[in-house]
Design brief:
Layout lengths: L2 E3 L6 H5 L8 E2 L10 H11 L2 E4 L2 H10 L5 E4 L6 H10 L1 H9 L5 E4 L1
Parallel strand pairs: 1-2, 1-3, 3-4, 4-5
């Protein structure tokens, strides 16, 4: 399972979670840091990545366009990088399951 972390999340998450989510990336690492959400969506779709964001816009795109790509929406305000990392570690089994569910394109984590 490969994740694509949006610009509203720290690039350090890629390294912090590499043991659980290898080959994940951050939009800045791919030259997508200041592009429109549609470009991030297209890249994730083309490369089989699951978008991870705190941005409600990706939830809206998921509702409008369906999947792929799948979207994980972090529903925690003002949380640290360590908090997000802990969230992804504690929900690892559920996130892996989400990645394989053919009919589910959106997962909210709080």
């Amino acid at each position: 399972m490969r994740l694509l972390f949006d610009e509203n999340l720290s690039p350090r998450l890629v390294r912090r979670l590499a043991d659980l989510y290898p080959d994940s990336a951050h939009v800045h690492d791919l030259g997508l840091g200041a592009v429109a959400d549609a470009a991030v969506w297209a890249h994730a779709h083309e490369h089989g990545l699951i978008i991870v964001s705190k941005d409600a816009d990706f939830h809206a795109l998921s509702q409008l366009r369906g999947h792929p790509p799948k979207v994980v929406w972090i529903r925690r305000a003002n949380c640290s990088t360590a908090d997000v990392g802990a969230l992804f570690r504690s929900h690892h089994p559920r996130i892996l399951e989400f990645g394989t569910e053919p009919d589910t394109g959106f997962l909210a984590l709080a």
